[in-house]
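Amino acids appear as letters; backbone shape is given numerically. Here is one record.
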Amino acid sequence: MKTALDAVVRPKGTEEQLGVLRPLLDNPDVLRVVLDKSRPFFLVERRSLHEEEALSTEQALHDAVRQSPMEEYTAEGGKSAAAQMLDFFEAIGSEGLEVSHLLAGSKKAFESWLGVRLPRLQIPRVFGVRVYFLTQLPDDVVLACGSLAKESMPGEIKFSIKGTIG
């Protein structure tokens, strides 16, 4: 069986940690969760999406988004990037889902649009959500993906909102 490792941010408080652990422990694809109090994250080992042929996370995300319903978002004139992101979160929340992944076609364009600098050596997070940059997407596209739990696997994506950077 093929597995994948992921680091999930470990909040400081016990109740907050339990809030992060509950969906992980309820997920049938999660095989192991490691809590090392000296580290600021939980190490999560999950069953791979396709045991016969392990796909990269990026390809798995692209496939999952293509197979789930998607809604186009058109920003009202003059709306800031942060306000647009909040609209994405609100739209996904109104579907009874959590924003689980943010996808963009270009890291440079995404950083410029939001006015932030993202780390290079780890999976960046915006508003606490993992951000992935997919070469299959046009540079000016951003997708907010919704799943039943914030810390979910790509195959658990149920709905997404597609916006344009710029």
